[in-house]
Amino acid sequence: MSTVVIGELLSGALLIVICFVLMAGYPVAFSLAGTSLIIASVGWLFGAFDFAILHGVASRIFGVMNNEVLVAVPLFVFMGMILERSRIAEDLLTTMGQLFGSARGGLGYSVVLVGALLAASTGVVGATVVTMGLISLPAMTRAGYDPKVSTGVICASATLAQIIPPSTVLIFVGDMLQGINQTAQLKRGNFAPEPVSVGDLFAGALIPGLILVGLYALWIFYKTVFQPHTVLALVMSAEEKRSLAVRVVTTLLPPLLLILAVLGSILAGVATPTESASIGAIGAIVLALLKGRFSYEILRTAAYNTTLTTSMIFIILLGASIFSLVFRGLGGEVMVEEFLKDMPGGVFGAMMLVMAIMFVLGFFLDTFEIIFIMLPICGVPLLVMGLDPIWLGVMIGINLQTSFLTPPFGFTLFYMRNIAPASIPTTAIWRGVVPFVVLQVVGLALVWHYEELATWLPNLIFRDDIATVIQNAPPPPPMDGPEVDPGDPPPG
Q1: What pTM, to 2 d.p., does this model score?
Q2: How far apart are CA 415 and CA 56, in angstroms?
Q3: Which residues lie closer than 8 Å to 362 by C-beta, 6 or more apart?
Q4: Domain count along the chain
Q5: Which structural domain, as residue segments, surrounds residue 325?
Q6: Is 236 helix (H, G, I), strand (E, B) or coil?
Q7: Which of 94, 176, 183, 381 has the most CB atoms within 10 Å of its CB?
Q8: Cβ of 491: how many Cβ atoms within 10 Å?
Q9: Which helix (H) or strand (E) holds 157?
């Protein structure tokens, strides 16, 4: 048996063994690195792997440490932690609920809108689910909401943190797609590829994220028309009604301006994602100070939790780097590329297969684990087949968001089960999210069919202006020497 065949068999075995090890509950980062090194040793014994390829681990670690874009991750996480610990997010939910809650279905609309705002400020699904669930679920229960509706809309709105920028998931996807797209374009013979940035992906995800927000709101509207008993209006006291206008200005406006400053500075090209993340972190501290809720304990807790979250993400990234190098050294990348090219249906079939695998992995693995494993393996082959990198990144985000919500293994459902009272059965939570899973599949299908939903805005903001500058540029000055009439025959 040739070493090429042995390498392909071992690369397939590597994927299978890692899936079993991860589902057994072992730490992800060490499972990826340790299993990969064991399989690499077996490949080396059979002459199918050269350990020299692991020399690239040091450069990858150094590259991660020097990557300014990735500095945005801890800053955005810190921003969300400050907003949560200082109870600014709680005030946002409460005030928005009272603003819309007097109308039938108003609490549902407020949860959707606040979910989108918190997604733009935290970027972490788990934190958003817990925050919204602890505050909104009791209020919706007191208002007489059907538990299926209340738990479903909270879970679905929380998953918006996966796709609405500035999502930490999109930061890593965008950063990885830069190198993946460059490699793919070189394989296609394009030696001057259009660069892909995190800002491109943020802009590309904005419209699909807003489409999902609109679909959720339409479902609440459907409930108000055809099942009004499931979405009752919130009863407010006279004092709450009198002070509502002031609280709307003082509670909703500052966080909204902060989010607009963070996201707007990126989309306007004024600041990089890292610079805008620093604006968000400082802005969150300023808001907490203005509210009189900032203290050393809040700062310490936010910094500690940010360190834990960031360390977990980056150690997984380093373990995934060893995995991808071993997988490539065994010839797995070539095997996957040939396999996807031979899929029935061409690029459609290949994309469908990758999306299906990621969807199933979303039941068992965290988002970061999936993208660190799957993107290096499948990203280059898919882009070589002609897919747009921004569209691919947005599709991955929506797909994993849907996977996080799908019963019975969706991560969001476990978060909700932990904070929901025992009076709400698990089956009610599952049944409540099913309509939103369908809506997310509709949103995924729309972005799949209308690629411009993900590519139009980044092209408008970051590319069309460059094309306009080139088009409107003055003609080059005439070259020295005698003028040559275009109709004259060439000299000689």
Answers
A1: 0.85
A2: 38
A3: 370, 399, 400, 402, 403, 404, 406, 410, 411
A4: 1
A5: 56-461
A6: coil
A7: 381
A8: 5
A9: helix 147-158
